[in-house]
Amino acid sequence: MLFRRRKPAGFREKLRELLWPRKGLTRPPRYLVMRVLRLRATPHAVAVGVAAGIFVSWTPFIGIHFVMAFILSYLFSGNMVAAALGCAAFGNPLTYPFIWGTTWEIGHLLLSRQDTMPGQSVDLAALFHQLHITELWRPVLEPMLIGSIPPALVTSVILYFATFYTVRAFQGRRRARLLERARARLSNPMQETV
């Protein structure tokens, strides 16, 4: 292997890397932000893509989040890569417990339900294994879907505007920098040949 370690990492080092990466915990979010900012699309397209990914991440349909984000992004003329990055950044294993708990509570509040079935429990593993969506709809999916709409709307609208203005400013600064470099190159043609 080309980039393999000479001495393989031991258990302690792997555990330390898992808990506290060598490059830090802020590197992955910074990478995602820079990846979104550097997309070659209009600020509106990038912002719509990110907003679509975030909106869809609130829904309980985990297996098809990317497909739903692509469809929403296409319908509102957004960027597909930005939609995928919005899905991946917002809907991940660290945020899903918060998302599910929030949508569950909001859904029950909006549907005016105290408890789904008092005195009864729902065996989610068996329902998912046997794919009884009809039995799963009323106690689980319906409140989560209804409860996902308000926070999805709020977060996607807020992050649409935040992304739009950030991308527009970044692209403006980048365009000015490239224009300055081009002017410097044109004013000193001899410096280029040396």
TrEMBL record:
The keyword Cell inner membrane does not apply. It comes from Rhizobium grahamii. This is DUF2062 domain-containing protein. Residues 27-175 form the DUF2062 domain. The chain crosses the membrane at residues 45-76, 144-167. It comes from the Bacteria. Keywords: Membrane, Transmembrane, Transmembrane helix. It holds the Pfam family DUF2062. PANTHER family: SLL0298 PROTEIN (PTHR40547).
